[in-house]
Amino acid sequence: MENKRVERGRVDLSGSFLIRCDALNTTLGGLLLGSAMNLHQSWWLIFSLMSALGNFYLSTWEEYHTGTLYLSYCSGPVEGILLIVFIFIVSGRYGDAGPEIWDRRISATFPSVASLLPSTIAELRLNEYFLGIGAVFLVFNIVSGGLNVFRASGARKRSTVVAMLGLLPFVAFTFGIFTWLKLSPSILTTHLIPFSLLVGCLFGHQVGKMIIAHVCRRSFPYFDFPIFLIVTIGNLSAFVFRNWELTDGANSGPVLRSAFPNELSHWLQGLLEKLFGHVERIEDAAFMEGTIVHVLLCVAVFAYLRFALRVIHELCEIFDCHCLRIKKKVIKVHGTAKFPHGKVGREGTPGRMGEENRKLE
Q: Which residues cross the membrane (predicted)?
């Protein structure tokens, strides 16, 4: 329903917030799409997830600077969902072996079509081909969104350079995620789902702050503390565990392959020994990577829920309404509050059917 209103150019305040809730849906949809296309727990899945989130961020950034929510010729809420549904149908058509068909090469699946294509494209797998199509659409949306922001900035006599700086928070966020995974490659193979949910919660907090700034006409939120804190802790812990090779005994510190502050290593060694016992091998350190991912996921969920509940509370206070339920209509009659179902009481409370209330009726 909200997508139809967007197409007609009629999006109100509640619609802006409702559409931005899709930041979490984008993450969940990316995981389902990766499973349907047999991407496994790989860099391809991370690439597709961050591309989808980048498209979402770009749309919110564009709305902040233009004041209008544009739907491109290939937008995620419409054409993107149709493409995903098509992939689900094809994968479901072949049962348990359905996702495996996306590992086939174009030359083997469509030989007549492959003969018309360059050899590089013809040898691509089907899932790689669809990811390439998504990347082309992403580039197109980046160009069209940038042009819309340039026009709006020129019409309002604002600096386009300052507007473009609004893309830096997502670039820094993406860089931090990729360096985290590069330092901890075991996350890709063992803890990718909780890690993706962590990324989705952080991203939801980021675009939520942006749409709040747009609606309330505040300055652009370049800095997001939960993202900075969680991504920094994740990268530091990944660096420690990456260089944590062996320990020599219960009372010894870790043996590091590269120079790193020994104080931090000894402190972390003691903390892990108290919580989980002595870490003897790098495999155990890999287990601790998963523990840190799950702990940081809880922190990210808490940060997002705190932000969402605060926004809901403030909106209910401003508009004098309830969330997910209709507030009863109150009709004031001579200092008392009369409710539609017939009961009358003092103002602000339903009250009992007293003698004075019967007289008022």
A: 41-58, 70-90, 129-150, 162-181, 187-208, 220-241, 285-305
- CA 8 – CA 93 distance, rounded (Å): 35
Q: Write phi, then psi, for 336 (nearest 5 degrees).
A: -115, 165
Place of tokens 């507007």: 163
Residue type, 10: R
Q: How many CB atoms lie within 10 A of CB 128?
A: 17
Specify the number of domains making up the chain.
2
Residue 7 located in a structural domain = yes
Shared domain for 311 and 345, answered yes or no, is: no
Q: Residue 202 and residue 226: Cα distance in Å, rounded?
A: 7
Residue 203 tokens, joined: 């991203």
Q: What is the pLDDT of residues 310-348, one digit of tens each?
A: 988 888 888 788 877 887 776 666 655 555 554 444 444
d(CA 106, CA 113): 8
For residue 238, tell me if it sits in a domain: yes
Whether the CB-CB separation of 54 and 4 falls below 8 Å is answered with: no
Question: Does the residue 8 lie in any domain?
Answer: yes
CA distances from 217 to 65, 69, 162 (A): 10, 15, 16
Q: How many CB atoms lie within 10 A of CB 286?
A: 19
Rounded distance between C-alpha atoms, residue 209 and residue 75, angstroms? 22
Give the range of the structural domain holding residue 356, as residue numbers without chain letter: 331-360
Same domain as 348, residue 227: no
Instruction: Find the mean pLDDT for residues 175-204.
Output: 91
Convert the pLDDT of each residue in 135-161 to its tens digit: 888 888 888 888 999 998 888 888 888
Q: Is the pLDDT of residue 254 over 80?
A: no
Q: Residue 334: which region, alpha, beta or left (left: phi > 0; alpha: psi -120 to 50)? A: left
Considering the domain boundaries, does residue 117 fall inside one? yes
Q: Is residue 243 domain-shared with residue 263, that is, in the same domain?
A: yes
CA distance 7 to 257: 56
State whether 185 and 40 are in the same domain: yes
**CA–CA gap between residue 7 and residue 15 (Å, rounded):** 12
The β-bridge partners of 344 are 338
- Tell me the residue type at 311: V
What is the identity of the amino acid at 48? S
- CA atoms of 140 and 133, how far apart (whole Å): 11
Q: Do 137 and 44 belong together in one domain? A: yes
